[in-house]
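Hi C.,

You asked whether I'd gotten around to modeling the 442-residue construct. I have! Everything is below, sequence then structure, no commentary in between.
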Amino acid sequence: MDWKDYLQKEKRCSCGKNHICDIEEIIIEEGGIKRLPEILKKHKYEKLCVVCDLHTEQAAGLAVYEELEKAGYAFKKVVYQDEELVPDEEALIYLFTQVPNDCDLIIAVGSGTINDLCRYVSYKMKIDYYIVGTAPSMDGYASNVSPLIIRHLKITYEARPARVIIGDLDIISKAPLHMIAAGVGDILGKYVCLTDWQLSHIVNGEYICPEVMELVRKSIKKVAENAGRAAHRDKEAICAIMEGLVLSGIAMSYIGNSRPASGSEHHMSHYWEMMFLLDGQPDPLHGTKVGIGTVMAIRLYEMLKENREKLFPLEAPSFDPGLWEEKIKEAYGPAAPGVLELEKKTGKNSDKEVLRRRAAFQAHEEEIFSVIDQLPEAEDIIEILKSMEAPYYPEQINVSKEVFARGIYYAKDLRDRFGLLQILFDLNLQEEFTNRLIQEIY
């Protein structure tokens, strides 16, 4: 794939805005790591810090060390010893203390968590970073934001993308199958993201960019068409999936936030992740959770279509802030203060806002359902995930009925971002749809 049209150019878009992706090079090819020294020489970096964890050091870190040593580079190694690394305050502080003050480039070796940590730390330290990918497992390689766990709450922070992304096909094609499947799940979630985004544009007048949406659709198409062959480690298919993941990240960079790539399916996934961490339970890969969240979100959209004829009229809204606050404390535990603060700032659940959105929904009902009709069926997503031996129901990753239900009710309160879950709240459908879905899948 020729990346020149996407990189280091300010693009005047038909949406009226200028888009830019601040990435210098993207290399997705066999033997890609061997090109690292020539790229470093071209950009004149000298003080290097290579960041891995126990797993990514074995997957690609040793190969990076070898290439750097052969080229005569001195570098510091930072290797997280955590068996399961979490991008929280402790991990951030460790990296801040380990990166030398005179470092001019961080080389992150890994996928999701390592990338998020290095992206944020390099941004705050005002130094560049490269990423050497170890698995096609998530779409954050080209992203300009870092989702981190701070005070038990999943928060997305501003950052900047890697200067160079290297996806060595000899390495990423050997990634565990569940990691490849996670990348597929992360991209399948874009079906829901784009639907949520379009509905917010219709209901709230939120800015939307048709060209960025088309870029995300291109990403989805690449991944969906190659998922089956990727399960057999076909390098051409793995390459297409990695390219699709990077395209999704470029879309985020163009917009300046995660809106094109994160919707209701991600909110449910983030809520489940927070509950796993709070309970001290193993947390499945981000894309694994997103794939399941996608199946659930599309099924909820299907229920919305099934109920279309009886959506209106509705009883007047009666939001009880005190009761809601108690429910949030139950649902989020120690992470509740951040959620409560967000509602204070936005008032998105207030009766006034609900009535405004209901009126907009009714006024544009035909347009809204024409957008929803473009979604694939939940069964189609299940079949793709099955082809990769990936889970597709929450119970398969130990999400309890209670946590699942709370996710539908309260995951929307993680972000001020309108979508499916807010629609269910606005139209008094949370209880009915949650109970129906639990009966179907548990």
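If it helps when you're writing up: The domain at 227-441 is CATH 1.20.1090 (Dehydroquinate synthase-like, alpha domain).

Thanks,
B.
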